[in-house]
Design goal:
mainly beta, four-stranded antiparallel β-sheet
Length: 124
């Protein structure tokens, strides 16, 4: 069993930046894919970024490429989502999840554990 806790959400103006954190209850990076997902009001949940530590690959949603990056701190069991040049369309609840695999970072496959989410609001 793995518990995931997101933090770092908040209100930011368009063009601003936020850093989200996802802290796991134990070290899992060797065994799991870590995903960042978001769900805007009235929309389906979508994959923002999925990190496969075993092969070093990271997937990014096309609309966030070049603006969002990820990093990790093994000592803190924490993965970060660095969000820059934020746009109102980035407004959503952001979730992190862990699973054994991902398929184009779909929230419907591979993710076994989910955090409760953190709200990001980007004002225009």
């Amino acid at each position: 069993e793995v518990q995931l806790v997101e933090s770092g959400g908040g209100l930011v103006q368009a063009g601003g930046s936020l850093r989200l954190s996802c802290t796991a209850s134990r070290f899992i990076f060797d065994d799991y894919v870590i995903g960042w997902f978001r769900q805007a009001p009235g929309k389906e949940r979508e994959g923002v970024s999925c990190i496969n530590f075993s092969d070093g690959t990271t997937y990014f949603l096309h609309s966030v490429e070049g603006r969002f990056t990820t990093s990790s701190d093994n000592a803190k069991n924490t993965v970060y989502l660095h969000m820059n040049s934020l746009e109102p369309d980035d407004t959503a609840v952001y979730y992190c999840a862990a699973g054994s695999y991902h398929e184009l970072c779909s929230p419907y496959y591979g993710m076994d554990y989910w955090g409760k989410g953190t709200l990001v609001t980007v004002s225009s």
